[in-house]
UniProtKB/TrEMBL annotation:
Pathway: Protein modification; protein glycosylation. The chain crosses the membrane at residues 20-40, 90-110, 122-141, 147-165, 177-203, 209-232, 244-269, 275-293, 305-329, 370-390, 397-414, 420-439, 516-540. The lineage of its organism: Eukaryota, Viridiplantae, Streptophyta, Embryophyta, Tracheophyta. One of its GO terms (molecular function) is metal ion binding. The keyword Transferase applies. InterPro entries: Oligo_trans_STT3 (IPR003674), STT3-PglB_core (IPR048999), STT3_N (IPR048307). Its EC number is 2.4.99.18. Residues 454-474, 769-779 have a biased composition (Low complexity). Residues 454-507, 761-785 are annotated as: Disordered. Catalytic subunit of the oligosaccharyl transferase (OST) complex that catalyzes the initial transfer of a defined glycan (Glc(3)Man(9)GlcNAc(2) in eukaryotes) from the lipid carrier dolichol-pyrophosphate to an asparagine residue within an Asn-X-Ser/Thr consensus motif in nascent polypeptide chains, the first step in protein N-glycosylation. N-glycosylation occurs cotranslationally and the complex associates with the Sec61 complex at the channel-forming translocon complex that mediates protein translocation across the endoplasmic reticulum (ER). It is found in: Endoplasmic reticulum membrane. It holds the Pfam family STT3. It comes from Digitaria exilis. This is dolichyl-diphosphooligosaccharide--protein glycotransferase. Residues 475-502 have a biased composition (Basic and acidic residues).
């Protein structure tokens, strides 16, 4: 009796020790993964400096500065008169405040602890910090589906995936910096509630969804994906009370909380993006009522009751659908936003909303971009899908559905590769965990058999026979002990131990299962080595992407040549000139790409910016850039513009300049003002600025502002971006004057000349011609046509 007690106690103690050691090792691994996710995103700070990147982050930085200086009440009521002149913008009601409030809270906490960091420093490092949180959230989500090993693998992969790095490097202070963490964490809490049926996790899920709504407009992906999964579970017969608890509180609490966000408001219940969640909510209650009645009534009465419930449920569904159709019938887009329609119909934006189609991140991705952003994960995803079906659970089916929808949306818009990245990492982590499990188990079995054969003189007849003999011997010994122990003292304590020992006895698999689970020694070693090499290639690619491809801030450009590294800091040079050499109330006109930077860095009023909420205003600027010099001067003068800024890359070879963007100015302007026609700027359907360019192109304001005095640089006027000499080389400006050009000619600033005084002799001549002032006013050309 003492021997079984001692052996069982030792086994239990060893199991507890092993579990404790595994927990400590997992926690330490997660800590290292968080450090990795944070540190791999610091190349931009190490190679350049601590600076805000891109365009939108400058607006977020400016808003965070205002919040930290004036407080949250002033933030909600802030009317910004330095943007969209003369309209202005109500900031508190038109932004997703999650990023700003998060960074502002971090800054306040640090300063409360006497850690005097600037607002800019906090904004620069917000994205790397939340990338570590996103990795930990990925671990939790994957663990709920396939265990700890898969969770650790998925977290490590997400920490380095280039698609996520591209939007979360140090300095990338955009909404996605915190939104991806909120997205993954919301999915984790949904799956956790689905597995446990806990109202506590359901409430946390609604709060996490609220944070996602505050952070990014992509929250509509969540409120459509989760109803799709609920409907899938209902259709496949996997309804349970846990499913009801996971979904119903999310719809009620989540919608109420989402309506509290000013930029969302009643859109949470009035737009088509949210209607699917309400319809599935009704269907779920009908199904729940059917299951409830089934438990109360006899089969015969249940058929009658089910007919009644289904009839009433269908009637309610049709009534709700009719109400929704009536609500959206008056809208030309049927209640959908322009961006949502461009996702459902990839050709919609190019046909009807050129302002959306003009954004580079709204273009469909190419196949090389998939390899660039997820690399070898593209080959591991199919294996992960197969693993999710072995066996299929509610959590694993959600992962597969998440992947399928993310693949579709990433194929429509390259920006949504960011949504695909977590799904690709989770499925790849599951696949790698399963493969490593099979290979290591096979290797362990083969090594144990090899050592057993070497220690014993009895030759083994085969893999399956030796394993079966070993297992049968052990099971016989354990059975003998378990049978003899109760005979000596059939107490309650011993019966409990007997049950534990019986449960600990492994079930002997048959030979077919062993052949499927165990691989030869050589194949196992080769497979592990191949996976290690594959992981090495992935790590090298991720480090290269973080260090070279995604670390350069667009505000500071670099290039390498035989002379070494060249730094182009023309943007900050131009904004500094505007800040120091113009009046505070001066208005600056440029294409909308540079509006946020001009307002944040030069502190000057702009006509349009990156918010793109008013298509007519943007079309006005596009029309001015597409018009001849005099007509453009009249348009800008009517808007009280004093300076015009253009970006030109023909001298240094910068391809993202205004000449390459000019056709979008023509299209957007022509969409509102019909006299601007794209064919007038094309020669035989080709866009040219050389001698073959059309007269309309050579005489428009954009051409003149970019190529003014350009021939003086090399005597030929050779454009390095377009690859040929310009058409019109020698010309003068009559209504604009050049006031500043940066060192590399990348940014050029012009000032509107004041209107010329009327000459006295000409005025007398006009009076002698008996022309009245009313006739002059009638004959004056309209600058908007």
């Amino acid at each position: 009796m003492a021997e079984p007690e001692a052996s069982s106690a030792a086994a239990n103690g060893g199991g507890r020790l092993r579990n404790a050691f595994g927990g400590v090792l997992s926690a330490f691994t997660l800590l290292l993964i968080g450090v990795l996710a944070f540190s791999i995103r610091l190349f931009s700070v190490i190679k350049y400096e601590s600076v805000i990147h891109e365009f939108d982050p400058y607006f977020n930085f400016r808003v965070t500065q205002f919040l930290s200086k004036n407080g949250i009440y002033e933030f909600w009521n802030w009317f910004d008169d330095r943007t969209w002149y003369p309209l202005g913008r109500v900031i508190g009601g038109t932004v997703y405040p999650g990023l700003t409030l998060t960074a502002g809270t971090i800054w306040w906490l640090l300063n409360s602890l006497n850690i005097p960091l600037s607002v800019e420093t906090v904004c620069v490092f917000t994205a790397p910090i939340f990338s570590a949180y996103a990795s930990w959230a990925t671990y939790l989500l994957t663990k709920e589906a396939k265990g700890t090993g898969a969770g650790l693998m998925a977290a490590a992969i997400l920490a380095m995936v280039p698609s996520y790095i591209s939007r979360s490097v140090a300095g990338s202070y955009d909404n996605e910096a915190v939104a991806i963490f909120a997205l993954i964490f919301t999915f984790y809490l949904y799956v956790k509630t689905l597995n446990t049926g806990s109202l506590f996790y359901a409430t946390l899920n609604a709060l996490s969804y609220f944070y996602m709504v505050c952070s990014w407009g992509g929250y509509t992906f969540i409120i459509n994906l989760i109803p799709m999964h609920v409907l899938l579970c209902i259709v496949t017969g996997r309804y349970s009370s846990r499913l009801y608890i996971a979904y119903a509180p999310l719809v009620i609490l989540g919608t109420l909380l989402a309506a509290l966000v000013p930029v969302v408001g009643f859109n949470a219940v009035m737009t088509s993006e949210h209607f699917a969640s309400f319809l599935v909510f009704i269907i779920l209650h009908v199904v729940a009522l059917v299951y409830y009645i089934k438990g109360l009534l006899t089969p015969r009465l249940f058929k009658v009751a089910m007919t009644l419930v289904i009839s009433v449920g269908l009637a309610v569904c049709f009534a709700v659908v009719a109400v929704l159709v009536a609500l959206v019938a008056s809208s030309p887009t049927k209640g959908w936003s322009g961006r949502s329609l461009s996702l459902l119909d990839p050709t919609y934006a190019s046909k009807y909303i050129p302002i959306i189609a003009s954004v580079s991140e709204h273009q469909p991705p190419t196949w090389p971009s998939y390899f660039m952003d997820i690399n070898v994960l593209a080959f591991l995803i199919p294996a992960g899908i197969i693993s999710c079906f072995l066996p299929l659970s509610d959590a694993s089916s959600f992962m597969v559905l998440y992947l399928v929808t993310a693949v579709y949306f990433s194929g429509v818009m390259v920006r949504l590769m960011l949504v695909l990245a977590p799904a690709a990492c989770i499925l790849s982590g599951i696949a790698l965990s399963e493969v490593f499990g099979v290979l290591t188990r096979s290797l362990k079995f083969q090594l144990s058999k090899l050592f057993d054969d070497s220690s014993s003189a009895v030759p083994a007849s085969g893999d399956s026979s030796s394993e079966s003999s070993t297992n049968s011997t052990k099971s016989e010994n354990r059975n003998e002990k378990s049978e003899t122990a109760p005979k000596e003292k059939p107490s309650k304590k011993n019966r409990k131990k007997e049950k534990e020992m019986a449960e600990s006895v492994p079930v002997k698999p048959n030979k077919k299962e062993k052949r499927l689970l165990v691989l030869p020694f050589e194949l196992s070693v080769m497979g592990i080595l191949l996976l290690i090499v594959l992981g090495g290639f992935y790590v090298v690619h991720c480090v290269w992407a973080a260090a070279e491809a995604y670390s350069a801030p667009s505000i500071v450009l670099t290039s390498r040549s035989r002379d070494g590294l060249h730094v182009f800091d023309d943007f900050r040079e131009a904004y500094a000139w505007l800040s120091h050499n113009t009046d505070v109330d001066d208005k600056v006109a440029s294409w909308w790409d540079y509006g946020y930077q001009t307002t944040a860095m030069a502190n000057r009023t702009v006509i349009v910016d990156n918010n793109t909420w008013n298509n007519t205003h943007i079309a006005t600027v596009g029309t001015a850039m597409s018009s001849p010099e005099k007509a453009a001067w009249e348009i800008f003068n009517s808007l009280d513009v004093k300076y015009v800024l253009v970006v030109f890359g023909g001298l240094v070879g910068y391809p993202s300049d205004d000449i390459n963007k000019f056709l979008w100015m023509v299209r957007i302007g022509g969409g509102v003002f019909p006299h601007i026609k794209e064919p007038d700027y094309l020669r035989d359907g080709q866009y040219r600025v050389d001698a073959q360019a059309t007269p309309t192109m050579l005489n428009c304001l954009m051409y003149k502002l970019c190529y003014y005095r350009f021939v003086e640089t090399d005597g030929k006027g050779f454009d390095r971006v377009r690859g040929y000499e310009i058409g019109k080389k020698h010309f003068k400006l009559t209504h604009f004057e050049e006031v500043f050009t940066t060192h590399h000619w990348m940014v050029r600033i012009y000032k509107l000349k004041p209107q010329k005084n009327r000459v006295r002799g000409k005025l007398k001549k006009l009076k002698s011609g008996a022309k009245s002032s009313s006739t002059l006013a009638a004959g004056r050309k309209n600058p908007w046509q």
